[in-house]
C-alpha cells in the first residue's frame, strides 16, 4: 500500500543521500551517562526491509538504543553501521543527510505546534529537501490520505486527538521517503481506544520495503507484524528470536519473567 | 584618568552620605533609606492587596487590577509629581522631599508586588487550598499559615527583581532635586564640570554593585529551598 | 481643593508646548524602539552563534544595562560620552540642517534627541534580549528533537521552528518592554530634552497650573500606552495555542 510512495531521491553522490542497503548494524555499542551505563555492549544486525520489535522493561535502554541510530544521543564507544558505513564521525552535513533518510516517530508526537497538519509535512520537504511548494503540497495531501487524516490537513495539532497527532507524525516521517523508519514507543502516550488507529497505519507500512525498528509495549503488534523480536534488559540484549518462538518458548529466564508480568499481570508468580 | 579619580575621592563622603553632619542624609545612604523604606511599605501593602484580589474575584479584583494598570501605565515620574502636589494638600503641611519620593515609590511598587504575589497564589496547586477548606480553615488563616509562606518563597526571584527596580528608581529623585546618589552626582558634575565620565561611571558602578548584591543574595536564599 | 483652570493649559502657549512635547515623545519613542530592536537582534545573533566569547559579551551587556538606572545611563551618554565623540561630528550635529526636522517640528539631529534615543535603545535592548531568550527557552525540547530528526540545520531549525514559537511566547513581555520605553522617555527631561514631561513642568513654572498640566500629561501617557499596546499586540504573533484536555476531545470524537 505504501510502496508507491517510496520514490528514490534525486541523484546526489554524497555519502548518505541514498542508501544502497537500508541495513543497521550495532557493533559493541556502549552508552554511558557520566558513570551510569545504559547500554553495555549491544550487537545487533537489522537487514533491509526487516521489521524488528524491541521489547523490555522500563529503564532497559531500549529508547536509547534507537535514538543512537539517528544520533539524537551519541555513542560512548562502539560503532553503528548504516548501509555498511560507519556513522560515528560524520560531518554535520553528512549527519543531516543521514537524518533526512531515516524517519523517526516520537512517543510524544512532537508535531510543530505552530503549523497545520499539512504544513508539518511540507516544511521539511521545502526547507531540508528543497522541494517546490506545489509538489510538497501534493505529497503532503497524499500522505495525509494514506493515514486517514486528509480532512484535517488545515487543523493545528492542539485541535487533534493523540491518535490523530501520531498519525500525522507518521505521515511527516514518511514524507521524504525514508528507507529506515524508527518508532520510539509510538502508542505509549495514547489513550487505549486510539492505539488501534496508529497500529493499523504501522501495519500497512510493514513489509513494504522499508526497514522498521519499533520500540513498543504492544505485544500483539510484535507477535503479528514483527519478523524478529529483540528482548533487552539492563542494557544488554538477552534474547533475539522470531515472534512465535519468543512468545511461546522464551529461552532467557528474564524474558520469561517479563512476558509473565506483561501477558498475565495478576498471576505473575505462576510459571 | 587618574585626574578623574581624584574628583571621586575629593567628594567621596558627599557622594556616600550627603550632608549627614548637618542632619541631611544624602548620596548612597539616602538611596538605601528610600529603597528600604519604600520596600517596607510596599511589601505588606502588596501582599494584603494580593490577598484581597485572590479572595474576592469579581468587582474587587477588577478594581484592584484597574488601579494597578493606572499606576503602572504612567511614568513613575508622574506618580512622584502627583504625590508631590497632592500630599501637602491632604496633610496640610510640608513633607520632606525624600519622604514624598519614598511614598510615591511605595505606591508604585505595591502594584507590582500585588501582581507578583497574586500570580504566585494562583500558581499553587489547587489541592493546597482544598485541603485547607476541607479542614475548616477560614480564608485569612489559609492565607497566613498555609499559602503565603509557600508563595513568598516561590516568588522570591520575582520580588527581588522588583526590589532591584526599586533601587534603580530611587534615581528619579534627581528630577525633583532630592539629594540621593544620582542627584548628588549631578551636583558634583555641575560644580566640577570637567570629569563627567569619572563621576557617572562611579555612580553607575555603585548602583551596579548594589543591584548585583541583591541578586546574589536572592539566589543564595532560594537555593536551599529547592 | 483649589479650582482647576483648564483653559490655562489647553490654550495658547501652553497648548503649543503640550503638542510639541507629545510629538517629541512619540518620535523619540520610535527612534529608541528602532535602536533597541536592532541592538536586540545583534545581541541575540551574538548569543546564538558567537560561541563562548559571544555569550559572555552579551551577558555582560545585559548585566550592565539592566543593573544601572536609566537616568544615570542617560546622564553618562549626554555629559560624558557625547564629549568623547569627534569634535567635527559634534559640530555637524549642533548646526541647523533643513533635514533635521521631523513632522511636528521635532528636531532629531540634536545632541539631546540622539543621546535620548540611543540611551533608551541601549537600556531596552538589554531587557528585550532576555525576554526573547526566555521565550526561546520555553519552546519544548521535543520540537527541537523532531526538527533535528528530520535533518534540519541549526539555522533552519531556528528560523522555522524555534523563532516563530519563541517569539509568540515572548510577545506579551516584549510589548511591555516597548511600552516601558515610551514611559521611560519621560526621564530624558532630566537631560533637558523637550519631550512631554519637560513641557508639563514648563507649564507649571509658567503659570503655576500644576494639577491641570499633570492631568493632561497623565492622560496623554495613559492613552498612548493603551493605543500602543493594542497596536503591538495586534501586529504580533499569537501565543502558543492551548491544548484541550483529553476529556473534552473524547466527547467530540464521532461515535
TrEMBL record, chain C:
Location(s), subcellular: Cell inner membrane; Cell membrane
UniProt-listed CDD domains: TM_PBP2
Any one GO BP annotation for this protein: amino acid transport
Cross-referenced Pfam families: BPD_transp_1 (PF00528)
Superkingdom assignment: Bacteria
Record key words, sorted: Amino-acid transport, Cell inner membrane, Cell membrane, Membrane, Transmembrane, Transmembrane helix, Transport
InterPro entries, sorted: AA_ABC_transptr_permease_3TM, ArtM/GltK/GlnP/TcyL/YhdX-like, MetI-like, MetI-like_sf
TM spans (from-to): 20-44, 56-80, 213-233
Xref: SUPFAM superfamilies: MetI-like
One GO location term (cellular component): ATP-binding cassette (ABC) transporter complex
Topology within the bilayer: Multi-pass membrane protein
One Gene Ontology term of the molecular function aspect: transmembrane transporter activity
Domain ABC transmembrane type-1 stretches: 22-232
Family designation: Belongs to the binding-protein-dependent transport system permease family. HisMQ subfamily.
NCBIfam families in UniProt: HEQRo_perm_3TM
Protein name, entry field: Amino acid ABC transporter permease
The organism of origin for this protein: Silvania hatchlandensis
Taxonomic lineage of the native organism: Bacteria, Pseudomonadati, Pseudomonadota, Gammaproteobacteria, Enterobacterales
Amino acid at each position: 500500500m505504501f510502496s508507491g510512495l517510496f520514490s528514490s531521491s534525486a541523484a546526489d553522490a554524497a555519502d548518505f543521500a541514498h542508501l544502497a542497503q537500508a541495513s543497521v548494524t550495532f557493533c559493541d555499542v556502549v552508552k554511558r551517562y557520566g558513570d551510569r551505563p545504559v547500554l553495555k555492549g549491544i550487537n545487533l544486525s537489522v537487514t533491509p526491509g526487516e521489521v524488528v520489535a524491541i521489547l523490555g522493561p522500563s529503564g532497559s535502554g531500549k529508547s536509547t538504543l534507537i535514538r543512537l541510530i539517528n544520533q539524537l544521543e551519541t555513542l560512548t564507544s562502539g560503532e553503528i553501521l548504516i548501509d555498511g558505513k560507519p556513522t560515528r564521525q560524520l560531518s554535520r552535513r553528512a549527519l543531516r543527510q543521514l537524518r533526512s533518510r531515516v524517519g523517526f516517530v516520537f512517543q510524544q508526537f512532537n508535531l510543530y505546534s505552530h503549523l497545520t497538519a499539512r504544513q508539518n509535512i511540507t516544511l521539511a520537504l521545502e526547507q531540508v529537501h528543497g522541494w517546490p511548494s506545489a509538489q510538497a503540497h501534493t505529497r503532503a495531501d497524499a500522505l495525509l490520505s494514506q493515514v486517514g487524516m486528509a480532512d484535517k490537513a488545515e487543523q493545528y495539532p492542539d485541535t487533534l486527538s493523540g491518535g490523530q497527532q501520531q498519525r500525522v507524525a507518521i505521515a511527516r516521517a514518511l514524507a521524504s521517503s525514508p528507507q529506515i523508519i524508527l518508532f520510539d514507543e509510538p502508542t505509549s502516550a495514547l489513550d487505549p481506544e486510539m492505539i488501534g488507529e496508529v497500529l493499523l497505519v504501522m501495519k500497512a507500512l510493514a513489509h513494504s520495503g522499508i526497514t522498521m525498528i519499533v520500540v513498543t509495549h504492544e505485544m500483539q503488534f510484535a507477535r503479528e507484524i514483527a519478523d524478529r523480536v529483540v528482548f533487552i534488559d539492563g542494557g544488554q540484549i538477552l534474547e533475539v528470536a522470531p515472534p512465535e518462538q519468543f512468545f511461546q518458548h522464551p529461552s532467557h529466564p528474564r524474558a520469561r519473567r517479563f512476558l509473565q508480568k506483561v501477558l498475565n499481570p495478576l498471576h505473575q508468580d505462576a510459571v | 584618568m587618574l585626574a578623574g579619580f581624584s574628583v571621586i575621592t575629593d567628594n567621596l563622603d558627599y557622594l556616600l552620605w550627603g550632608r549627614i553632619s548637618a542632619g541631611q542624609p544624602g548620596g548612597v545612604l539616602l538611596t538605601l533609606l528610600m529603597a528600604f523604606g519604600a520596600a517596607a511599605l510596599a511589601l505588606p501593602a502588596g501582599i494584603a492587596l494580593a490577598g484581597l484580589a485572590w479572595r474576592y474575584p469579581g468587582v474587587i479584583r477588577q478594581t484592584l487590577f484597574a488601579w494597578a494598570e493606572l499606576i503602572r501605565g504612567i511614568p513613575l515620574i508622574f506618580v512622584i509629581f502627583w504625590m508631590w502636589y497632592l500630599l501637602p494638600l491632604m496633610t496640610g503641611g510640608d513633607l520632606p522631599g525624600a519622604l514624598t519620593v519614598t511614598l510615591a515609590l511605595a505606591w508604585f511598587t505595591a502594584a507590582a508586588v500585588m501582581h507578583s504575589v497574586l500570580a504566585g497564589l494562583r500558581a499553587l496547586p489547587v489541592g493546597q487550598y482544598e485541603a485547607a477548606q476541607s479542614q475548616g480553615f477560614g480564608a485569612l488563616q489559609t492565607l497566613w499559615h498555609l499559602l503565603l509562606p509557600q508563595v513568598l518563597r516561590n516568588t522570591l526571584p520575582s520580588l527581588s527583581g522588583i526590589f532591584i527596580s526599586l533601587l534603580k528608581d530611587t534615581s528619579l529623585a534627581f528630577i525633583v532635586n532630592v539629594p540621593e546618589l544620582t542627584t548628588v552626582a549631578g551636583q558634583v558634575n555641575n560644580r566640577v564640570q570637567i570629569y563627567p565620565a569619572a563621576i557617572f561611571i562611579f555612580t553607575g558602578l555603585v548602583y551596579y554593585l548594589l543591584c548585583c548584591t541583591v541578586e546574589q543574595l536572592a539566589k543564595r536564599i532560594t537555593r536551599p529551598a529547592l | 481643593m483649589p479650582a482647576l483652570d483648564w483653559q490655562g493649559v489647553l490654550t495658547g502657549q501652553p497648548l503649543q508646548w503640550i503638542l510639541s512635547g507629545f510629538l517629541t515623545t512619540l518620535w523619540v519613542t520610535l527612534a529608541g524602539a528602532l535602536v533597541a530592536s536592532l541592538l536586540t537582534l545583534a545581541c541575540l545573533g551574538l548569543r546564538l552563534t558567537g560561541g563562548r566569547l559571544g555569550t559572555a559579551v552579551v551577558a555582560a551587556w545585559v548585566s550592565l544595562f539592566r543593573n544601572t538606572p536609566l537616568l544615570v545611563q542617560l546622564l553618562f551618554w549626554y555629559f560624558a560620552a557625547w564629549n568623547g565623540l569627534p569634535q567635527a561630528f559634534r559640530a555637524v550635529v549642533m548646526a541647523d540642517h533643513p533635514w533635521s526636522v521631523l513632522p511636528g517640528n521635532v528636531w532629531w539631529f540634536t545632541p539631546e534627541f540622539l543621546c535620548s534615543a540611543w540611551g533608551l535603545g541601549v537600556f531596552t535592548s538589554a531587557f528585550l534580549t532576555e525576554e526573547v531568550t526566555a521565550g526561546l527557552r520555553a519552546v519544548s525540547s521535543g520540537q527541537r528533537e523532531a526538527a533535528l530528526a528530520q535533518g534540519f540545520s541549526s539555522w533552519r531549525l531556528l528560523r522555522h521552528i524555534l523563532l516563530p514559537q519563541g517569539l509568540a511566547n515572548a510577545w506579551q513581555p516584549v510589548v511591555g518592554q516597548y511600552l516601558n520605553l515610551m514611559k521611560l522617555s519621560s526621564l530624558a527631561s532630566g537631560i533637558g530634552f523637550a519631550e512631554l514631561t519637560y513641557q508639563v513642568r514648563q507649564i507649571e513654572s509658567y503659570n503655576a497650573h500644576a494639577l491641570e498640566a499633570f492631568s493632561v500629561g497623565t492622560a496623554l501617557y495613559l492613552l498612548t500606552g493603551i493605543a500602543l499596546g493594542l497596536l503591538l499586540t495586534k501586529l504580533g504573533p499569537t501565543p502558543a495555542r492551548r491544548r484541550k484536555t483529553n476529556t473534552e476531545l473524547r466527547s467530540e470524537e464521532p461515535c
